[in-house]
Amino acid sequence: MAAGTGDFGDIGGSTRTRLLRLLRDRGALSRAELADRLQVPRPRLLADLDALLQEELVQEAGPAASRGGRRSTLVTLAPSLRFAAVDLGATSINVEITDGRLEPVAAQAVTADIRSGPRAILQQVNEILSKFHAEGVYERLAAIGIGVPGPVSFRDGVPVSPPIMPGWDRFPVREILAREHGCPVVVDNDVNIMCVGERYGGVATSVDNLLFIKIGTGIGCGIQLGGEMYRGTDGSAGDIGHIQVDGHGPVCSCGNVGCLEALFGGAALARDATAAAKAGTSPALAERLRANGSVTARDVADGAAEGDVTCIRLIRDGGRRVGGVLAGLVSFINPSMIVIGGGLAGLGHILLAEIRSVVYHRSLPLATGNLPVVLSELGSRAGVVGAAVLASEVAYGQPS
Length: 400
Known about the structure:
Keywords: Kinase, Transferase. By secondary structure, this protein is an alpha/beta fold. The chain has helices at residues 14-26, 31-38, 42-54, 118-134, 173-181, 190-201, 260-264, 266-279, 283-292, 297-305, 309-333, 349-362, 365-368, 382-395, and strands spanning 29-30, 58-63, 73-77, 83-88, 92-98, 104-111, 143-148, 152-153, 158-159, 185-189, 210-215, 219-225, 228-229, 337-341, 373-375.
């Protein structure tokens, strides 16, 4: 049986799961090292290894370095293992194919409108994956991880009443992708997969209590406590974009008034920047509006870098609002680190400095004395890295 064609749903046993995750994270290890690290009886380890060798999920990789006496044999993941990591944004689709150690072997990003509905978007995903298959990137996928920009029932694998995703409510994303590709599928919201990705391969690799804040078209928070994702009872934990910060503010996409993302999401920033350009209060934005017919968050960042006072004010106002919400979370959760990611993280250190200032000023010194507030190290790749991690978890028998 070729690697990738086994029944991954039957891996199950905790020793086998831990073994596969260890090989994923550490690379090739000897049988002796595996026994030492896993702390399991050697007969059980050898039985599980033999089963995984038969299923061609792992393979032998030559003799290990001598530790005295008979040399042990190295074991590594099968080189043909492949995972698909999919990060759906409001206006984009990012896909990576990784090997068993989550190293990328192929990637593609395309523009897309999440409002075009689930069938159209998933058709684009399937076309990308089919292209990779035709090019020989993979024979069969071991699992797929996918993040979507809205609330998700993690247990059921479906979006639930997502404000910016018309037509997606309760759409069976997991079921359809699993049937199409014949492999396990895990579905989560986009900020959760970014949080998983940043802790696995980014700036937060040694952090157990983490808040990852995505500031993009929407605003959300991924929460890891004790090294595990916290999703809440129904999967909606961290939906901070819909915390009210101004009772007289604009109407949000969720239907309520004055939500955080209605005041400083991507659409809100473009709205306020356009108004400033038309009013003539920002020469930098007015010039870009004349040249391009519209203004974007990137224009605000560029204007701020040029010293445009209005652009700087727009970023600081947004940072102050985000910081105010985060200060409450810091007092409540007492995290070890806050990571800022998403498209508007590109607004840079003006935004970061304002968020830090408010968090440090409004939260108790005991909670902020050792609290780094930093930008994402993975940037736009945080989502696909996290989706690949979740895919490997479900394939190896222990979804997070």
